[in-house]
Design goal:
about 30% helix; 3-stranded antiparallel sheet; about 30% strand; alpha+beta
């Protein structure tokens, strides 16, 4: 585990203080850090002045070198870029080439990617799955459907292989959505033309990425 220092400003009393942060973890060598990341404990801080407890947002690298071939996720809060390079001392440790390197803007997206790769799934296919699922739900009842899905786990339910998603609307958790794994397999086949699109650097692979790829495919056909 690598530690550093950063300055945070309390959102309640505006007190400025220096805190110890952890800009990167490798859960292969430090497996106990996985739960600290997923629970948010690693980002917690307490204001020295008013006692407020909250989360400090800072650039963070999550690295797993073994699970399903290894993967890396770079959290950069509110990042507007779609691709970034990894700089500094960590750069020499994270040359993945064909292994997934992903850019995410928030904690929910970080956990989404961790769970996807740990389940042995392709996050590009999962994002297409989300796009198609939300589009179908729009036809059913556009006022009550979620506007965002985050993968949580793959599980056997009543003898059927299922994918579970946390459903959000306006960042509020609505509940859990259970979808058959067979629909994921259908997405693997239906999205075949876009899987050949190269992914370089740490890339944001999300619903926007899918929609852009589908748009490019449509233009090629025309």
């Amino acid at each position: 585990m690598i530690t550093d220092e950063d300055v945070v400003v309390c959102p309640v009393c505006e007190h400025e203080q220096t805190i110890t942060i952890c800009p990167s973890v490798n859960v292969t060598t430090d497996p106990e850090m996985r739960e600290k990341v997923l629970s948010g404990e690693i980002f917690e801080f307490t204001c020295d002045k008013c006692g407020f407890s909250g989360y400090a947002g800072y650039p963070f690298v999550y690295e797993d070198k073994e699970t399903n071939g290894g993967f890396l996720i770079y959290l950069e809060p509110d990042c507007e870029d779609r691709e970034v390079g990894i700089e500094g001392d960590i750069a020499d440790q994270v040359i993945y080439h064909e292994r997934p390197m992903r850019l995410v803007p928030d904690m929910n997206s970080l956990k989404d990617k961790i769970f996807i790769f740990e389940a042995g799934l392709d996050d590009r296919v999962v994002e297409l799955f989300k796009v198609l699922t939300l589009a179908k739900m729009q036809d059913d009842d556009p006022e009550k459907i979620p506007d965002e899905l985050k993968f949580t786990k793959r599980a056997e339910i009543n003898g059927e292989d299922m994918l579970l998603f946390a459903a959000f609307r306006n960042e509020e958790l609505l509940g859990t959505l259970e979808m058959p794994y067979s629909l994921y397999q259908t997405c693997v086949l239906s999205g075949e033309p876009i899987w050949d699109v190269p992914v370089t650097e740490c890339a944001a692979i999300d619903q926007q990425w899918v929609m852009e790829r589908l748009g490019e495919e449509k233009e090629t056909e025309e």
